[in-house]
């Protein structure tokens, strides 16, 4: 019970996740030092991309949550950029800003995977909060059904993470394509943009892999108890 065979794989996935985190920071720092030829800031590029897509109503604001807190808020129709991204004119700043615009475009075009992600969110949120308690309670009280409910809820959380992957990959692809179309990056600079965005995508892949492996582990435990 202390060590489950699946823990070995989970440990490897955890290593991958930590490595991906370091890579995100490393790539961001590396490409933060490389200025884009146009000299435009992340906020300016985001504005140009949004306007060109007919999304003039989407606002761009400072994110107050510090570095790498950049996100698109679909409720407020606002792209929030951290200070280095908002003000910076490096390849890294432009890559992150354009990626968040990618999410705004997805929202506007009702991109299927994004719609599904929003629908899954409430259940996934409950799942990730409740599942650990249900598992622990189920084991302590020896209630197998409780573990079963925990697994069902945890599955929703895992599915949410799986659906997040195409959403993130698509936003990055849109970011690169739209920036090239607009001419705010050169073909050489696209490599740097790809570097920054691919590292970020890898962190999502690693954490999803970890969640899937954990789910498999819980299912195996559940089946062996029945
Ligand atoms: Zn994203």
Automatic annotation (TrEMBL):
Q: Which InterPro entries match?
A: Zn_peptidase_2 (IPR007395)
According to its UniProt record, what is one Pfam family this protein matches? Zn_peptidase_2
Q: Where are the transmembrane segments?
A: 120-141, 146-167, 201-222
- Top-level division of the source organism's lineage: Bacteria
Q: What keywords tag this UniProt record?
A: Membrane, Transmembrane, Transmembrane helix
PANTHER family in the record: MEMBRANE PROTEASE YUGP-RELATED
Q: What is this protein called?
A: Probable metal-dependent peptidase
